[in-house]
Structures are given as C-alpha cells and as structure tokens.
C-alpha cells in the first residue's frame, strides 16, 4: 500500500513503524472472514481492511471523526486477522497507534470519558478493585447492569506453597483483577509448579501489565506501569529467576511485547527485552513436565477448551494447551470456529456490551457442541465473560491439573 504520512508523524519512531506496517498490506481481504465484527455487522469499515484504511487516512493528515472513533472502538484487537494475513501485517500495533491519535483529536461524551477513566483507574489497582468488588457484592442490586453481571460469588483462595523449598524459582504476574475475581488461580499455579520442584517468588508490588491503558489510548501511562514492573522484577531476575510465568494470556501477550514497547527507551530497552524473553505462558513451562502431571481428583475428564485470542493469535500458542490436557488424560470435545473471539477482549465487554454478548452467545454454542462437563480457558477476562451466561461451569485450565505425587 502506498503511503504519504503527514510531516508531523512521518519521521517519528511511531510513524516509521506505521509506515512499514501499512506498506505490507495489499488489501487482499483474506482477513475479512476471520474478523468477528465484520462477520456480525457486514460493514467494510468494521473489518481490518477498513480500519487500516481509516488509520492510514488519519496518519496522512485527514481529521478523524466520531465515525472513525466508533469503528476503531468496535475492534476487539483479537488479532485473528494477523493469523490469517499472508503479508504479515501487524494490525494490533497499528490499531493501538490509531486509537492513540484519534483519542487525542476526537472528544468523547462525558459519560464515555467517565467510564473509560474509571476502567483505567480502578482495574489496574488490585487493592482498589478487590475492595470495590466486595462492596459490589454487598450492594449488587444498585450496581449498573453491565457491571452487575461481572460480580461473581467469592471463591476461597488456596494456600500458597513456600517459595524457598526449591533451588529453581520463577516469578509470576499475579495481575490486577484475577486475585479478586478468581482467587484460587494464582496459588493453584504456584502449587502445580511447587509439585514439579519449582518455587514461585511473589512480587506483590507488580500489578497491572499495562494492557488496559495501552488499548484504551493511553500508551504513556502503560509505559510507566511497564517500567515499574521491570524495576520490581529486576533484582529477582539478577538473582536467577528462570522465567516470568503469566497465567492470564492477555497479560502474557502484553509482557511479551515489553521489549517492543520500550525499544526506544535508552534506560529500559535492554531490560524490557530481557523481561519479554523470560515471559512464558504456563503451558510453555508445563509441557516439558507433561509426564509428571495428572488431572485433579475432582476435575471432570470431558472438557471443552476455549483458546483465548491472546493465546492463539498474539502469543501464537494455538493448540498447545489442548495437546497437553489430552496427554494428561482429558477428553477434549470439538469447538467449531475456535479462532473467533468470545467477545471479552479486556474492557470490550463493558464498552461494547451488545456486540460482546452476540459473540459470547456464538462462542458458547460452539463450546457446547460436544456436550462437555466443563469449559476450560486460559484468560481471566474470557473466563468471567463466558461464565456470566454459561450453563456449563467455566474454570481456568490450571485448576484442573496437579503434579503427580508419585512422580
């Protein structure tokens, strides 16, 4: 694609990256069939090809409009288009840049600004989010509908194993909303690793990975969070941590991108690249120990695995959790259109609830095809979003496994 970027951005790092991405796009249209919003709405402007063209216009100096903003807002950033693109267009990075510029130039209504600011203020702060979640459970009838559905009954957390029992140790991103929404997931991850002889050193000062701000048009705030996380992890990395385990695939995709996001930061570029190298999804670590893992005693054996977009399209780990679970002893039921987003997409299910609900209904129908006893997933957002409407229990896949005591 030919480009003529505006002088204001042409010679910046962002401009050079955007120009390189745009020039890869041949407008072939292969991406359309895999775009969830295009499949729902049938509007070219709500397809990757249409959004790329709109972003190109903005980068070339055309003033964005509320319509431009709407079509970018409707994008889930699921990155299914990247998986199918024969030219290797890095659409997710271009979409983030487009959102940032449009956010600066197109004013939002007071209600939209308030909601987006509230999400960026509350969600990344683990203690604040957990406190408000507890308050929401007490005052549930007073909470607005789209948020009320996400208030889950509290589950008891499991005890954490000691981190000092093993010479091998890893770090783990505990996340900002997961400890409040699903307390058992993080300690269960640590317990599985402990059973394999791997300790988990907790770094509680690390909270949000930065993805919320990154995808809501506030990359500077995201960068500040990234630097703070690197500072908290770095002493442990120097002490020999062999990996940073991230059990929420959305956060994992973000941490694996730290090296790119801070590539132009002289003080943090090398450290950010090292953190990205160390970041692993649990499956990347556990598949090396498959013979030492078994299904948890109370776990059903017939399950459907919902592969989050951030696991298959962003981290490129499609099929690996399924294979591991099958090897451990689970029966995996078929899931048609497994590459299509469930509609969660971070804050999307709050900001675009109607589209999110349509996508969820389709996903749950597909997940139910083989009559599973349980749905397993690898991302907290997908888990909560699906569980709101699912008649089949939804759990994180790490809750279904344990280390074999006999191994």
What is the fold-level CATH name, i.e. the topology of the largest domain? Rossmann fold
CATH class of the largest domain: Alpha Beta
Rounded to the nearest angstrom, the radius of gyration is: 21 Å
Helix content: 40-55%
Give me the number of helical elements: 23
Alpha-beta content class:
alpha/beta
Structural domain tally: 4
* Gap between N and C termini: 56 Å
Number of DSSP strand runs: 10
What is the second-level CATH architecture of the largest domain? 3-Layer(aba) Sandwich
Textual characterization of the structure:
This protein has 407 residues and is α/β, with parallel strands linked by helices. The protein has four domains: 7-105, Alpha-helical ferredoxin (Fumarate Reductase Iron-sulfur Protein, Chain B, domain 2), CATH 1.10.1060; 119-148, no CATH class; 168-284, Rossmann fold (3-Layer(aba) Sandwich), CATH 3.40.50; 292-403, Rossmann fold (3-Layer(aba) Sandwich). It has 23 helices and ten strands. It has helices at 7-10, 13-24, 36-41, 48-59, 66-73, 80-84, 91-105, 110-122, 126-138, 145-148, 178-181, 185-195, 211-215, 219-238, 249-255, 258-261, 269-278, 282-286, 309-314, 320-328, 348-351, 353-367, 380-387, and strands at 168-172, 198-201, 244-245, 279-280, 293-295, 302-306, 331-332, 374-377, 394-396, 401-403. The strands form three sheets. It has a four-stranded parallel sheet with strand order 2-1-3-4, with helices on both faces. The chain has a four-stranded parallel sheet with strand order 7-6-8-9, with helices on both faces. Strands 5-10 form a two-stranded antiparallel ribbon. Helix 23 links the parallel strand 8 and strand 9 (394-396). The radius of gyration is 21 Å and the shape is globular.
């Amino acid at each position: 694609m030919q480009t003529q970027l505006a002088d204001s951005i042409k010679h910046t790092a962002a401009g050079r990256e955007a120009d390189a991405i745009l020039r890869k796009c041949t407008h072939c249209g292969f991406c359309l069939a895999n775009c969830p919003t295009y499949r729902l709405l049938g509007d070219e402007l709500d397809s990757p090809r249409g959004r790329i063209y709109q972003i190109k216009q903005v980068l070339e100096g055309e003033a964005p409009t509320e319509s431009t903003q709407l079509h970018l807002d409707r994008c889930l950033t699921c990155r299914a288009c990247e998986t199918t693109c024969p030219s290797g267009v890095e659409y997710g990075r271009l979409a983030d840049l487009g959102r940032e510029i449009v956010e600066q130039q197109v004013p939002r209504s007071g209600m939209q600004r308030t909601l987006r600011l509230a999400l960026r203020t509350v969600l990344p702060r683990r203690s604040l989010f957990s406190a408000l979640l507890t308050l929401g459970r007490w005052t549930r009838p007073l909470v607005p509908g789209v948020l009320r559905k996400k208030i889950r009954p509290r589950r008891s957390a499991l005890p954490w194993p000691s981190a000092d029992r093993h010479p091998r140790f890893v770090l783990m991103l505990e996340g900002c909303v997961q400890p409040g929404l699903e307390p058992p997931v993080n300690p269960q991850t640590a317990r599985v690793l402990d059973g394999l002889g791997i300790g988990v050193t907790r770094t509680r000062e690390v909270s949000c990975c930065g993805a919320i701000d990154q995808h809501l048009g506030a990359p500077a705030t995201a960068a500040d969070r990234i630097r703070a996380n690197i500072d908290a992890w770095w002493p442990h990395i120097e002490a020999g941590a062999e990996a940073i385990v991230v059990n929420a695939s959305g956060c994992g995709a973000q941490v694996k991108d730290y090296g790119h996001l801070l590539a132009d930061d002289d003080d943090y570029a090398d450290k950010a690249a090292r953190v990205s190298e160390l970041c692993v999804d649990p499956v990347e670590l556990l598949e090396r120990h498959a013979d030492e893992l078994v299904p948890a005693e109370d776990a059903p054996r017939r399950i459907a695995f919902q592969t989050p977009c951030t696991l298959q399209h962003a981290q490129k780990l499609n099929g690996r959790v399924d294979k591991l679970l099958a090897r451990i002893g689970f029966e995996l039921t078929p899931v048609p259109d497994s590459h299509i987003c469930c509609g969660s997409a971070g804050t999307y299910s709050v900001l675009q609830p109607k589209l999110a609900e349509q996508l969820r209904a389709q996903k749950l129908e597909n997940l139910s095809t083989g009559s599973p006893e349980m749905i397993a997933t690898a991302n907290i957002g997908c888990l909560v979003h699906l569980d709101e409407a699912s008649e089949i229990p939804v759990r994180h896949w790490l809750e279904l496994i344990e280390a074999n005591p006999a191994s």
